[in-house]
Amino acid sequence: MGWLALIWRLPRTGFILGRAGILAEMAKSGLFPDWVARLFFFINFAIASTRSRRNRGEALCTALQQLGPGFVKFGQALATRADLIGPEMAKALTNLQDNMPAFPAKYAHKIIETNTGKSLDALFMSFDDVPVAAASIAQVHKAMMPDGRAVAVKILRPHIHRDMRKDVHFFRSLARLAETIAPAMRRLRLVKAVDQFAQISEMELDLRFEAAAAGRMAQQLAEDEGIRIPYIDLELSHHDMLVIEWIDGVRIDDVDALVSAGHNIDQITEIAATSFFNQVFRDGYFHGDMHPGNIFVTDDGTLVPIDFGIMGHLEFRDRLFLARLLKALLDRDYDKVASLHADAGMLPPSIDIALFSQHLRALADPVLGKALGEISLGMVLGQILLISSRFQIEVQPQFNLLQKTMIMAEGVARSLNPKADMWHLAEPLAASWLASEAGIARQAELVTHDILSVLRKLPDIIDRLADEQTTQPDRKSAGWMKFTAGLGLGIVAGCAGAIALLATLI
């Protein structure tokens, strides 16, 4: 079924994207065989529009909107893959606007009444039929509750589940085709990236997950100053609709309105930078769609993020690696950056660490050498991806969403204060976090976790090894194998216990 969908949709999709000039960028990536790259260049020359030659990024954004909701979402995900489409196109996609024509209000009424089992009049004192926003997945209406509270009602598009499933099947087939004709692309884990995209999209299409995400973030940020999460009406929220507190405030990038309202711009910038750092490193759970339209500043100067459909998660090990990486980049210690990649197992043993460090310096120095307000660590990470094919670095899918979010957060900080550098604002937090989290006790806890993970798998491994003996296994040898493995298990368990005890004493 996947291949049939590919054959059916590929010509039209290829033509529209070809008109946007994307094929030329893919040809320049160095990931495709020479004959494929030459073919892409030829097709690009033949069909690329005049507009794409003037502004390729803008043309691509328009093409993705033309192709439909799934492509808009996938385009936003591609903003993190400078290694595939080039840094200029990746930067352009960070500005991809998720604006779509609104669907008729009668469908919104039907979805609400189907989900709740109640009439619209019984649920709301008033309901505005004209949506305040319409995106690829859902649209938002303002309503008034019977008790006088203003709320935003987010409603999924009709047939969006079916449409997204079709797009995901197409993307997966396309990824498999790319890995077949260009084996060098397997390192990029395209199929896994599509699977990750599908997982995120599936959660976006069940608004109960968004309600849960907002609740989790509200708990995380409860003690943080200057930021809060809107109230969610869990009783009225269902798979296809979400009822959330209406926020009256100023968009965080509307500096003139913020100044007119008497807000302290430097303070807002610091709150935004601190919150981003805390979400990523302290909590390991962060807002994954932090564009300016999703952050408001209320009358009292409180930052209120909205739209929790896309959330990111990082394990402690990833956070530790990332914190050390960003600190090394800010210090322009490229030898350290290279060794961190090697220690994390991202570099093959055959790679010359010194050569890798030299390439890092060549790419990162021009960016990090700029004025403070122009430094973009998000773009530096994108530059690192550009040399990944040369050094056979395995792409880490868990960092894709983070990189996109970093670029968005940097854009927000820069719109508030062009001279501000959010990373230097957060540097004291990074130093403090590393000091507390990278100590002996925390490392011992991490090792213990790894050992216990192995212990849980050992019984299955032992049984599998015994079963894989000859078709007529020697019972004595099989028994001896189990005894030996069991003894090893006991030794490992003892080590784990000792390390765990040590961790509690330090």
Helical/strand content category: alpha+beta
Output the number of helix runs.
23
Separation of the first and last Cα atoms: 57 Å
Rg from C-alpha positions? 26 Å
Q: How big a fraction of the residues is strand?
A: 5-15%
The percentage helix is 55-70%
Q: Overall mean pLDDT score?
A: 79
Pick out the low-confidence regions: 496-506
Label the overall shape: globular
**Biggest sheet, in brief?**
5 strands, antiparallel
Compute the number of strand runs.
10
Task: Describe this structure as you would to a colleague.
This protein has 506 residues and is α+β, with helices and mostly antiparallel strands. Among the domains are: 248-438, no CATH class; 440-505. Helices cover 61% and strands 7% of the residues. It is built from 23 helices and 10 strands. Strands 1, 2, 3, 4 and 5 form a 5-stranded antiparallel sheet that branches. A hairpin with a 5-residue loop joins β3 (138-144) and β4. It is globular and about 65 Å long. Mean pLDDT is 79; it is low at 496-506.
